[in-house]
Structures are given as structure tokens and as C-alpha cells.
Amino acid sequence: MPARGTRFTRKIAGRMPALPVIVGRRLGLASRASLPHLLESWQLKLETPPMKVSGFTFLRNGQKLGYPFVASIRSILPVVDEFVIALGPCGDDTEKMLRGIGDPKIRIIPTQWNERVRSDYSVKGFVFGQQKSIALFNCTGDWAFYLEADEVLPESDLPKIRGTMEKYLDDDRVEALAFDYLHFYGNQNTIAWSPGWYRSEVRIVRNTIPAWSSESLFFNIIASHKKSRYPRAAHTGATIFHYGWVRSEAQMNLKTSEIQRHWVEKPVPPADYSKIDPATLKLFTGTHPKVVQDWLPKAEGIFCADPHHRLTAREKKHRRLLWLEKTFGWRFNKKHYRLVS
Predict the structure, then answer these.
(1) pLDDT at position 34
(2) What is the per-residue pLDDT for 8?
């Protein structure tokens, strides 16, 4: 597809012989000889293609498993030039709903899932990394913007996100861009906040460097034939709203039954949202993105955790870390990137 502005560039180039006289008169310059470097820089700028951004995700049975994927995709479309979806075999109306969005930016790639990848070998959840990488490898932009099917961008952050991509487009130090996270839990009024819930993560990666994903959460930058590492990232200053724990417990159990074999061999107990450390839960006082408001179940007040819940060893550890954070202002955040700017 031709770059935007190409016709304008040809039009200007066609008038280039007359430009020295016109510009010289405007600037009060006496001769054409003083303008070549100025005109050359103008022509280079005119011929430089605009930044292109690819959005991407992977999906399978999104409707059945309770993903707000339509809202997720609609939230990112304003800041991307294309949106690539690696769509696995579905037994519901996911594909119909995707096509119902009706945006020409959307490109669906049918994929097959390798159900035989062992979860006990080395990397857990590798099949999800495969699907994420398939979508990534089909992106054609300068940046590749990954958004999971239960993640939504607030419309107020879209200019900030686009501006950050523009800012670092030519800065080779920056390989990726990170976001803050809000994890909604139990209902739309409650967020889970502790070192046990990732608070920031990379979602945009430069599409001109060798990168892939060994699992769905983070990116691997290939440093050599035998080694990969986390990307060097700048922060966008924007926030992603994560709604994975707002779906019903029945949908969560169905999701778990379909994906657990890719992560662990042992059975996972049924979901009971009330079994959580109450110290983790905070009241959300902000506004949800407009695209997801109709999807959210109605609720009043903060989600009520079981007051008799017996803390697990992991929860006890996170409670201690949370106390240290509140007392000393420290942050025990696990980050899959190295902040460089």
C-alpha cells in the first residue's frame, strides 16, 4: 500500500525547480545557491513514510470463555493501522463477533493449536506463546502492540500512547514500551493490588528487531542463537484495564478446564473468588472505558472476600511485602523488562 502523503510529495517535487525563487523571496535570500541544503532536508521529510502501528492478539472460544474481546479490540483500533488476530479453532460465535466489528483494519489469521506441547518439559504455557508469536510475525508496522482479549485501553490514554510511540520511534535504546495495570477482581468496583499481581508490563515491542514470546505474558528479545533476554523499555505513562477476574466463576472454571493442561499437569480447584486476602482488595473510584461499560456486570460496592479465608503461604509472603511497601515506599514489582527511559 503506498505511503500516505506520496501524492503530495510528487506534487511538491514537480514544483521543486521554482521553489528556490519563491522561498528565496520569502526569506529575503539573494540567490538560489543558498537554498539547496534546505530544500534537500524538506524533500527528505516529505518522502519519509509515517509511523505505522500494528495491533495484535490471539484468541480461541472468546465468547464461551467470557472474554470482552470486542471491547478490547475496539479500544485499540484508534491507535493502530492494522489489527492482526491469530484465531484458533472455535466452537462458539467468536469469529462471527470479530467480523461483526466491521473494521477494515482487522486481519484474521486462522491457526491450529499444538495440543501436544508438554507443560512439564521446560516452558509452561508455550502453546500460548506460539499463538502470540504467530500474530506478531504477521505484523507489518514499526511497532507491534499486543493486547490480550480481556485487556482494555481507556480512551483518555490513547493520545499519550500514540505520542510515546512517536517519541521513541527513532530511539534505538528503546526496544519496547510498558504500561501500568489495574486488575479488576470480583466486580467492576474492586481492584487487586499487591506484589502478587503484576503492576506493569510491556505491551508494545519494536517490530524491526528479532523478538518472539515463549509464553503469552512477556516478550523475548533474541540476543544470539543461544540466548534471549527481556527488552529495554520506556514507560508510556498509560494504564491497561484487565478484566480477566470479572467474568463469572462458571466462565472462569470453564476457561481453567480448557487451558490448565497447557500450564500444569495436576488438577486446579474450582474458582471461588471469595478465597482471597482482603488486604489485597481496593475500591476503584475511577471511570471504566466507554467501550467496556455495557459488558461489565452491575455491582454495588467493593467485592466481599471471605473473612474466614485462611491465607496461603504465598498470600502471607505478599502481605509482608505489601506492609514493607506501605511503610517504606518500596516496590516489589516483578518486571519482564529493563527500564531505560
Answers:
(1) 53
(2) 41
Domain of residue 207, residue span:
53-185+193-245
Domain count, the chain: 2
Taking Cα atoms as reference points, which of 81, 55, 72, 233 lies closest to residue 153?
A: 72
Nearest to 206 by CA among 180, 238, 171: 171
Kindly state whether residues 169 and 23 are assigned to the same domain: no
**Count of alpha carbons within 13 angstroms of residue 94, beta-carbon side:** 24
Which positions of the chain have pLDDT values less than 70?
1-48, 265, 341
Per-residue pLDDT reduced to its tens digit, 252-264: 999 988 877 777 7
Q: Are residues 74 and 179 located together in one domain of the fold?
A: yes
Write down the pTM of the prediction. Answer: 0.85
Integer Cα distance of 105 and 77 in angstroms: 8
Residue 170 lies inside a defined structural domain of this protein: yes
Which of helix, strand or coil describes residue 87? strand
Whole-number Å distance between alpha carbons of 209 and 174: 11
Residues 43, 156 within the same domain: no
Q: Are residues 26 and 60 in the same domain?
A: no
**What is the residue type of 169?**
L
Q: Answer yes or no: are the C-beta atoms of 78 and 158 closer than 8 Å.
A: yes
Separation between Cα atoms, residue 315 and residue 320, nearest integer Å: 9
Listed in order, strand segments (DSSP E) in the chain are 53-59, 82-87, 106-110, 143-146, 151-152, 176-185, 190-192, 200-206, 211-212, 220-224, 227-229, 232-245, 281-283, 338-339
| Measured distance CA(206)–CA(170) in Å, rounded | 10
